[in-house]
Amino acid sequence: MPLISMFYGIVIQMYFFDTKQHHRAHFHAKYQNFSVTIAIDTGEVLEGKFPPAKLKLVDAWLEIHREDLMADWQLAVEGGQVFQVEPLR
Description:
Strand order of the largest sheet: 1-2-3-4-5
Number of strands: 5
Radius of gyration: 12 Å
Strand content: 25-35%
Number of helices: 1
Structural class: alpha+beta
Shape: globular
């Protein structure tokens, strides 16, 4: 699973060919023992739990980089090489 970005202890990743379970463009965020799957288009949590303060950081990052994430999603579902997205600063 490629690493897309990392900030404030949060790791953002996408799986290759990951369209069967959620059927929507999404990414995975991990922080300590927490893991969450988030829809790129709406920011909706599709699965998992995350600390609220860290989820707000992920939401802010998503708003800034939605277009980059959609481009990465297209590459990932085709099995292509995804690119890194700037971390939240």
